[in-house]
Amino acid sequence: MAAALRLARAGVRVTVVESYDEPGGGLRSVTDATVPGLVHDLGAGFHPLLIDNPFTREVDLIAAGVEWAWPEVQFAHPLDAALDPGHGAAAYRSVEETAAGLGRDGAAWRRIFAPLVEGWDELAVDALQPPLHVPRHPVGLARFGAQAVLPAAVMARAFRTERARALWTGIATHGFRPPTVPMSSAIALMLGTAAHKYGWPVAVGGSQRIVDATTRLLAEAGGRVETGRRVASLDELGSPDLVMLDTGPGEALRILGDRAPALTRRSYGRWPAGPAAFQVSFAVDGGIPWDYEPARRAGTLHLGGSLADTTSAERSVERGRLPRLPYVLLGQQYLADPSRAQGSVVPIDCYAHVPAGWDDGDAALAAVVDRIAAYAPGFRDRVVATAVRGPAQLFAENPNWIGGDIAAGLVTPLRLAWGARPSLSPYDTGVAGVHLCSAVTPPGPGAHGLCGWNAAGVALDRLERAAAS
Ligand SMILES: Cc1cc2nc3c(=O)[nH]c(=O)nc-3n(C[C@H](O)[C@H](O)[C@H](O)COP(=O)(O)OP(=O)(O)OC[C@H]3O[C@@H](n4cnc5c(N)ncnc54)[C@H](O)[C@@H]3O)c2cc1C
């Protein structure tokens, strides 16, 4: 939608073609998943990177009806008393408040995040752009890059307590990889800095409100959306000046067909698959009774245990085994936005990292419930209704999520830096006028709109140059 809006506002006549019955992709929310009326985000629920970025600076989502709301605690990481007598750690918008909760590791947390929060406006100019550009702030970018390339497990050596190591690891693991892989620190640095700079807000009424707003803005700019049509080939699109593929490389290859040049065929064909998500929506009477008090006020919870526990669980997943206690990312959006609840019954949306294509839904659901109940005895008694979306259903809903892989491929260092194909522009497919604009392009996964925004900028440049020549 970001790509569509940039093109439409530049005067291009745009049609968005969507295979599902409704637009939105990884931003949909529904009110009929568990108890009627409870608002569940089925995809992205938290939007730190949408608050102020090159896309939202041009496209005013607030003026278009989106209202942001923040939880008191941005994210929390409960721990067993055996690992941490305080039962866990929490991140607040303030670096100081977060550091204060980390005891003797407070200074290390402050050393990592305070300069990034302070310099974020300058850093973002370079970090959120396509990779090949002359940096506007090379010193800040180099400082960020030196930490970002490290495995999160290496950066974790800056901390002496399990509590701080776990808080750090929990954010690094958003990338669906063990914290021992290179560049897993990049994700922790970006998301941690965003939590302190912008908080992790939710959209009041559900993330669907963002979809509704962008759809409306697109219509105002003369664009339109056609749903329920899966594009299989370029040939069925007539001869448009531009095609923007919001797809994974595999789907892009199918659509490009014989027109894909050899380099594109090779790179897209070898695109590595990532693990899957097992998504669960719960309706819970009275909320989850977490032992760790700040978790009762936190928008997001990272349920992964210690650094060693998370590493072992993520490695099992990559080897195709379901861990006894998988890493679970859990959202309590209703705390920031009480309008999503129905009386005392509140919506909870979470997903576990499971092996690609995992098809034993009973085992995965039991593991998710065990994981939550380990930190919240009494959770089971409060569950009123449960709805699951396993890997097969996720793939059926969205062709980008092969085998339930909601990151549309393994999150590798090369992908974060270059996208799907080594070339001067990561948005090029090698076919004139056809661009890739999905989360497989820089700056990578997340509902920030910047893959589309950047790709449309490249496409418009080309279009203008072609018109001028
Ligand atoms: C459960 C879950 C939780 C998440 N939580 C967060 C979060 O809190 N914050 C965050 O920033 N991100 C989060 N994400 C990630 C975020 O949603 C994705 O990174 C983002 O949606 C990727 O955007 P995209 O445009 O690349 O792809 P998508 O959002 O997947 O959109 C691509 C669209 O293209 C359609 N499509 C694909 N192929 C075709 C075809 N051949 N023809 C027609 N249509 C086609 C798909 O149906 C889909 O609607 C989450 C994702 C999930 C699933």
Automatic annotation (TrEMBL):
<dbReference type="Pfam" id="PF01593">
    <property type="entry name" value="Amino_oxidase"/>
</dbReference>
<feature type="domain" description="Amine oxidase">
    <location>
        <begin position="1"/>
        <end position="249"/>
    </location>
</feature>
<comment type="function">
    <text>Probable oxidoreductase that may play a role as regulator of mitochondrial function.</text>
</comment>
<protein>
    <recommendedName>
        <fullName>Pyridine nucleotide-disulfide oxidoreductase domain-containing protein 2</fullName>
    </recommendedName>
</protein>
<dbReference type="InterPro" id="IPR002937">
    <property type="entry name" value="Amino_oxidase"/>
</dbReference>
<dbReference type="InterPro" id="IPR036188">
    <property type="entry name" value="FAD/NAD-bd_sf"/>
</dbReference>
<comment type="subunit">
    <text>Interacts with COX5B; this interaction may contribute to localize PYROXD2 to the inner face of the inner mitochondrial membrane.</text>
</comment>
